Amino acid sequence: MIYLDNAATTKPCREAVAGSAYAMTRVFGNPSSLHGLGIAAEQLLNYSRDKIAASLGVLSREIIFTSGATEANNLAIFGLSEAYGRRKKRVVTTSVEHPSVAEPFKKLAAAGFEVVTVSPRSDGVLDEDDLVEAVNADTCLVSAMYINNETGAILPIEGAFARIKKLYPECILHTDCVQAYMKLPFKAKSLSADAISVSAHKIHGPKGVGALWVKKGVRLSPQILGGGQQSGLRSGTEAVPMIYSFGKTVDAMNATLGPRYAHAEKINLYLREKLSQIPGLSINSPDDASPFILSVSVPGIKSETVLHFLEQKQIYVSSGSACSRGKKSAVLEAFGLPAEKIDSTVRISTSAETSEDDVDRLAEALRLACETLVKIKR
Ligand code: PMP
Fold this sequence. Notes:
Layout: E1 2-3, H1 14-26, H2 36-56, E2 63-66, H3 69-84, E3 90-94, H4 99-110, E4 114-118, H5 128-133, E5 139-143, H6 157-167, E6 172-176, E7 195-199, E8 210-214, H7 240-255, H8 257-275, E9 282-283, E10 293-297, H9 303-312, E11 315-316, E12 318-319, H10 330-334, H11 339-343, E13 345-349, H12 356-377
Parallel strand pairs: 1-11, 3-4, 3-5, 5-6, 6-7
Antiparallel strand pairs: 2-8, 7-8, 9-10, 10-13, 12-13
Helix pairs in contact: 1-7, 2-7, 3-4, 8-12, 9-12
4'-deoxy-4'-aminopyridoxal-5'-phosphate is lined by residues 68-70, 98, 100, 145, 149, 176, 178-179, 199, 210, 323.
């Protein structure tokens, strides 16, 4: 099997599996219980909180565990706009966000917020100036992703957020870092962010757990009410096995971040070189995109057809993004891709396990797809 769908999800690492099994078999107490078993469970939560906080360069008590990045994004957008949007009604986002950001903004618009959506220019690049200029003194919240999940494009949030903070220190800045976390070396401070969403299953951890970091002093209105766990910011008994597994994953991935990035760069160069030799195939990802994601189009053949052709050869990729599930991607449209390319987009996303041999086999299969499938169509 050649697994090239790591932007959709990753294979859990050894540490992740061992961590969840340990918590489930050995430390099954409720972390809110006052007896020893409860305290032991709470210690596992603290372990993970410390690991994630250290990886982002923030304080442990600023980390809120969630069921994943979808919930983290919802919590950030609704929780921050509720806390800060009483007088300031303008919120800013981009047209290339994941649905877990785009959909909450639609709801904010329906609730009376002025939602300003910044789009890439005609060259497909989202400009730093455009993001900064969308913000004014009435803006309470900006949410812009760091790395796009469909093309790997790196958004200019580092520069834009720093400039916005200088101009409007009270404006709250949130970023969805799902495709950047444990892939690119960054810290909360280097992004000038106030809130960051991350997910475990994109970094070889378990599915169903993520985290939202919110800077000390920033107000957040809780969206899940109940027993008051996590300082009242996210009620519900914490998913101890998943959270501990997440912490163990972060510990393992942090230790290999540099070499994994170097490997991804090498594989990405090789992929680009190999795939650009296939007549008709075009590369959609910008040259300076994240090396972990490569979006390509196979003109004349529908994405799903290519996907299943590759699947027969046990090569697993995504059509556009796994989340869009057959729907035409509004994100690729926003990046300026013509309709025929959007219909035939395939997303290849690699991991540390991807080898040059895997790339050779993918390239061979894609070449065959171009030759035979186009012929069938004719
Ligand atoms: N944001 C981005 C950029 C993503 O790629 C994903 C996963 N498709 C999410 C958010 C949602 O994460 P989760 O699956 O943890 O809810």
